[in-house]
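Fold Annotation — chain and its backbone

Fields — amino acid sequence, structure tokens

___
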Amino acid sequence: MFSRLSSGSCHRADEGAPGSRRHCDGDGKPKSGHGPPPLLGFWTRSLAAGGFFGLLFFCVGSFLFGSIDATWAFLRGQTLYVPTSEIEAVRDSSGQFALAGFEIRNLSFSPCDILGARTDCDCTVVDDLPTRIAPLTTGLFKVRIAYRPSNVAENSRVVELLTRASVNSVKVRMLVPDNRE
């Protein structure tokens, strides 16, 4: 029995004290002891699994919410998401109005009612209000800003959409081109 344990063979290496057992590969030959330590392998597998599930989460989030930014907004607790908070208005063909359009994404799993809009000037009107945005869909809004006599080359108007109390408020700034001829 002494000759079997002292030889280089791993056959029947499970005999003896647990600390004296040899580690063998699939062919029955002793392992050389080279290779990554077990703890390093654990962390490598854990990081790989975390990266995989993180990527899967963001892919599903992008599919549900439309973009990575919208997914982050959902994780921050926002119900409504506007991709850009500053929108440039353009002069209409009559020259009396500046027109702008923007979209709002409902990130919740229930419909969201937009009851009205509050603006910083009575010259600004948001069309098609009140309205309801279905879950996980996008609503489009048009804003008309009447030109008033001004010496300002470019100004802006703020539109705040009014929703139910449990939904975060949404503010959008419209950059209005100059109205000088």
